[in-house]
Amino acid sequence: MELLYKLFSYAWFQGFIMLFLLRIVTFILRRRYKDKLANKDIIVEIFVLIIFLGIPFISEFVLGINNVFKYTIIFAIIGMGCEFLFDLIWYVLTGSRLYRYFKANLLGFTSWFIFPYWAAAGLYFYGSWQFLTLLFPAMALPTVDILPLLKDLSFISLLTALIILFIFGFVQYIRGRSIKTNGFQDYKYTIIVLMIWVPILYFIYTFNNPFLAIYFIFTSITGIVLEGKLSMKLRNLYGESFWLYYRKNIFKQGTSLLILPIWGAAALLALLLFNIFLT
Hints:
Layout: H1 2-8, H2 11-33, H3 41-62, H4 68-94, E1 99-101, H5 115-135, H6 146-174, H7 186-206, H8 211-238, E2 243-245, E3 249-250, E4 255-256, H9 260-277
Antiparallel strand pairs: 1-2, 3-4
Helix pairs in contact: 2-3, 2-5, 3-4, 3-5, 4-5, 4-9, 5-8, 6-7, 7-9, 8-9
């Protein structure tokens, strides 16, 4: 029991168990239905929910390891909400879609089916943090006062957007051109990126811990790769695309280079929730 507790205290081990069980379930379902599980969405989703939420549930309520289950649930809810708002804002700013969901979707901006995968993403961020702190012990989890910090980060994000918009507007005025408001424009994407990463840099600077930068870079790069691989696996599982990206896409439209800074935002969200649930 002591060995089991020690193993389950590592989020990467929980993730390994999730993938192992999902592989077994997928094999059994394919043997049962003898196809790519087309039109079996609910069946697959039920098993995914049981596996992806069951492992953190066992960790917290059976083995008593921190608040892993609460953390993954809250992260998934906030993650889905932020994903919906991000693509909605993108659509309002550019009049185009960066990505679109096709199954159980909420206006295409997110999907009910994505909930367990967001929960697994929360566990991925926690596992990444545990892994990196083993390599870099100096990368200790900063203790933060959440509400004042969120207030500062929000103010910095808004100020950054206004400054970038002013600079682009001034440059276009000097050049005798008007700012285009329709379609994808570099200045719009720059605003979105800097609204995310300037607060992240402020966060790193505030706690005077450059090792935090390693966490954000690592999770952003590996996150986008995992998203692309997951999209391809789900396409094989369901027999059709779960979601598609439309601009600068990679992994057969499973993800996009433009989404890279968003993974940084998700990493920051996870770090804030660590302080609430996992310390």
